[in-house]
Amino acid sequence: MANLGITKYGNPVLRKVAEPVTEINDEIKKIVNDMLDTLYASEGVGIAAPQIGVSKRIIIIDTNPTEASVKPLVIINPEIVEVSGEIKEQEGCLSIPDVRGEVKRYERVVVERLDLDGNKIRVEGTDLLARALQHEIDHINGKLFIDHLSKLKQQLLKNQLRKIEQGQ
């Protein structure tokens, strides 16, 4: 297990549609462990495999990292199958440090996924969990939260994004 650091805006892996996981093996389990270490070191709520430079359809969400009895959600090959409501809230991203913006998301989502044992499971999320599910699923689809911002807000962020891209 290792904290691999977060892949930053500008890296092409963040804009690529991630590959489905076809077999849950030791390699996938190592990726998951590395993602967990990186997520907790970064103090985030969620992480997608592309954020550690791996183009696989794996996301992890932990909306309550200080509560040891609540296990993080390890989500492999997620698909949103049901949505309802809308809510607009501030959002940020580990891959785009110090950038925030109001993003409209579904208030409730149902996701079908595989767990680390290969079992097909449905998870329903509202509030923060729903937002995190949508945000991380966007990542494995090559989309970033800034893509949901208005064109004006995107223009205003151009210089800031360029600096992140250049590693400044």
Q: Strands, helices and their partners?
A:
Layout lengths: L25 H17 L3 E3 L9 E4 L11 E12 L2 E7 L2 E10 L2 E7 L5 E7 H14 L10 H15 L3
Give an overview in words.
With 168 residues, the chain is an alpha+beta fold. The chain has one domain: Peptide Deformylase, CATH 3.90.45. 27% of the residues lie in helices and 30% in strands. It has three helices and seven strands; from the N terminus they run αβββββββαα. A five-stranded antiparallel sheet has the order 1-2-3-6-7, with helices on both faces. A two-stranded antiparallel ribbon has the order 4-5. A hairpin with a 5-residue loop joins strand 6 (108-114) and strand 7.
Would you tell me the overall average pLDDT?
Answer: 93
The main pleated sheet reads as:
5 strands, antiparallel
CATH architecture: Alpha-Beta Complex
Strand content: 25-35%
Radius of gyration: 15 Å
Distance between the termini: 28 Å
Number of strands: 7
Shape field: globular
Descriptive keywords:
five-stranded antiparallel beta sheet, 168 residues, alpha+beta, Peptide Deformylase, two-stranded antiparallel ribbon, single chain, 7 strands, globular
Give a brief rundown of this model:
This protein is an alpha+beta fold and 168 residues long. It contains 3 helices and 7 strands, in the order αβββββββαα. A hairpin with a 5-residue loop joins strand 6 (108-114) and strand 7 (120-126).
